[in-house]
Design brief:
The complex is a heterodimer of chains A (about 290) and B (about 250). With about 290 residues, chain A is mainly α. Chain A has a single domain, classed as ABC transporter involved in vitamin B12 uptake, BtuC (Orthogonal Bundle). In chain A, helix 4 packs parallel to helix 6, helix 5 packs across helix 10 and helix 11 packs parallel to helix 13. In chain A, about 45% of the residues are buried. By secondary structure, chain B is α/β, with parallel strands linked by helices. Chain B has 2 domains: about 150 residues, Rossmann fold; about 80 residues, no CATH class. Chain B is built from 10 helices and 9 strands. In chain B, the strands form 2 sheets. A 6-stranded mixed sheet of chain B has the order 5-6-7-3-8-9, sandwiched between helices. A 3-stranded antiparallel sheet of chain B has the order 2-1-4, with helices on one face. The chains are: A mainly alpha (about 290), B alpha/beta (about 250). At the A-B interface, helix 8 and helix 9 of A face strand 5 of B.
């Protein structure tokens, strides 16, 4: 088997593989900058919780309209935004620590979502909601994913500066006329939108993968925000491509294969800082 | 400020503060821990909304004309931004969200870093600076802001004597330029030596006016800063209306 047949033929021969690949690329482009900002803001857990917050709405949409894509997406978007609002209100007025509220949202979202799908659907439906069906993405679904990713990238480009500033010095943003809570809300809504796009392909369990793992891997290599965003996108694309290939050649589910590819990239990347420490230690012990 | 009452949720931190910071004045805001110094600065800078009362700023366009230097712990220094970029953020209020970054902003930021002695470290990441160097970077950002009103919250906390003296000189230059400067701080020696005006706080105004008339033993005791006649050098300094450093 030639390298060409391993790396290119699956995409050249099958339209569903090409569609899945384009979907993964679009997700990587939108998720890279959002994921980098999420991690810089120490909000990795928030990203994970929001990926599950999409589930109850998608599940209710499924119960009402079967697997109609638009209904699932609107449902997921609504519950995701509801959780964002509750998080913001909880931070401002609540007495609970944020991590306790996030844990509650996390488990409540999974519980409600699984319950609704289990009541109205089959185990196969439940697996589709949980793990997605990236290889079954049709043209309307692809258009929706690409459209959402485009909106996310366009809006983020407009508000990237204040969102980055708000990440590390919210007081400065506020004293110079910016609205700290408005930019936080915009950022979280963009994350929810990205997750709604992601859940079409990877399901609610894994929708956070393109958002968090490529950015976490990129942080091992670079520190400046520009390269961090670029490398996050690159790693997201690589994970999508490698995961789809693994799924095709090894006949394994595509969503988990993409997640494993992203995890391998992350695991390999964690060796970079460790190797730097070892090199520094080695150099410092060398006789002058 | 008129009958200014500020707090966080139900807890009142400062109550019924009324008075005027004259344009071009240099005022120390002094009080024990928890007296409400930071809260008052937060209210003036718009970070918290007063429970009651009002703040009126004459002759200044908020936010462009107000610079607030916070305590260091309110900034995440691990964020990947260079010292030069951080300093250039001082031009933020004038550039805005979508505005073009003017080429001269970089020059202004470099010149501000030169003024605080950090020009050699312009390319370093913010997280690589020491506490004193970070304080200098914060001052450089205030220079770039070029605001008519400058609020400084504990600007000399945790820095060495050389850094403290350099930053004090800078602050005095701002005062000489005609800016209105308000500084929350603890060191009564510095207050007596440098600040013409003092606001003494203990969740309310204990005294406000010329420093020598504010920092009297009775008023310091009332503010919880000197509990007994043997409370140490701070009381002795406070009784010396000349306000010169005695140590």
């Amino acid at each position: 088997m030639s390298l060409w047949s391993i790396l290119v033929t699956p995409f050249a021969d099958y339209a569903f593989m090409r569609t899945a690949l384009v979907a993964c690329m679009a997700l990587a482009v939108a998720s890279g900058p959002l994921g980098a900002l999420l991690l810089l803001r120490r909000m990795g857990l928030v990203g994970n919780v929001l990926s599950h917050a999409v589930m109850p709405g998608a599940a209710i949409g499924f119960a009402l309209a079967g697997s109609a894509l638009a209904v699932l997406s609107i449902g997921g978007l609504l519950t995701g935004i509801a959780v964002v609002l509750l998080m913001i209100l909880g931070t401002r007025f609540g007495e609970q620590r944020e991590d306790a509220s996030l844990a509650a949202f996390y488990f409540a979202s999974i519980g409600v979502g699984v319950l609704v799908v289990a009541l109205r659907g089959t185990n196969v439906d439940l697996m589709h909601v949980l793990l997605g069906t990236v290889l079954a993405i049709d043209v309307p679904a692809l258009v929706l994913i690409v459209a959402i990713a485009s909106v996310v990238v366009a809006v983020l480009a407009l508000v990237f500066r204040p969102i980055a500033l708000q990440s590390f010095d919210p007081a400065f943003l506020r004293t110079t006329g910016g609205s700290d809570s408005a930019y936080r809300a915009i950022f979280l809504v963009l994350v929810v939108l990205d997750l709604v796009a992601g859940f079409q392909a990877l399901g609610t369990l894994l929708a956070g993968v393109p958002l968090l793992l490529p950015a976490a891997a990129a942080r091992c290599w670079v520190r400046r925000i520009g390269p961090l965003v670029g490398l996050s996108i690159g790693f997201g694309m690589a994970a999508g491509y490698a995961g789809l290939l693994a799924s095709y050649h090894l006949n394994v589910p595509s969503g988990p294969a993409i997640a494993c590819a992203a995890a391998i990239i992350y695991a390999a990347s964690t060796l970079v800082p460790a190797s730097r420490v070892l090199m520094t230690a080695f150099k410092s012990t060398k006789p002058v | 400020m008129r009958d200014l009452t500020v707090g966080y949720r139900e807890r009142v931190a400062v109550e019924g503060v009324s008075g005027v910071f004259a344009a071009g004045s240099l005022t120390a805001i002094v009080g024990a821990n928890g007296a409400g110094k930071t809260t008052l600065l937060h209210a003036i800078s718009g970070l918290v909304t007063p429970h009651r009362g009002s703040i009126e700023i004459a002759g200044a366009e908020i936010p462009a004309d107000l610079a607030y230097l916070p305590q260091s712990d309110s900034i995440d220094r691990d964020f990947p931004i260079s010292v030069l970029e951080f300093t250039a953020l001082g031009g933020w209020a004038r550039i805005g969200v979508l505005g073009r970054v003017p080429p001269e902003l970089r020059l202004r930021a470099m010149s501000a870093l030169q003024a605080v002695g950090l020009d050699d470290l312009a390319g370093r990441m913010l997280g690589e600076l020491s506490v004193g160097q970070f304080r200098r970077a914060l001052f450089a950002r205030v220079i770039v802001q070029d605001a008519a009103i400058v609020l400084l919250d504990e600007p000399f906390a945790g820095v060495d004597a050389i850094t403290s003296d350099d930053l004090l000189n800078l602050m005095q230059c701002w005062h000489a330029d005609g800016r209105t400067v308000m500084v929350a701080l603890h060191d009564l020696e510095q207050v007596l030596a440098i600040f013409p005006e003092t606001l003494l706080l203990a969740r309310k105004t204990i005294a406000w006016g010329a420093t020598a008339t504010v920092l009297t033993p009775e008023k310091l005791r009332e503010a919880g800063l000197a509990t007994s006649p043997a409370a140490g050098s701070r009381s002795r300094l406070a009784m010396d209306p000349g306000g010169k450093r005695s140590t």
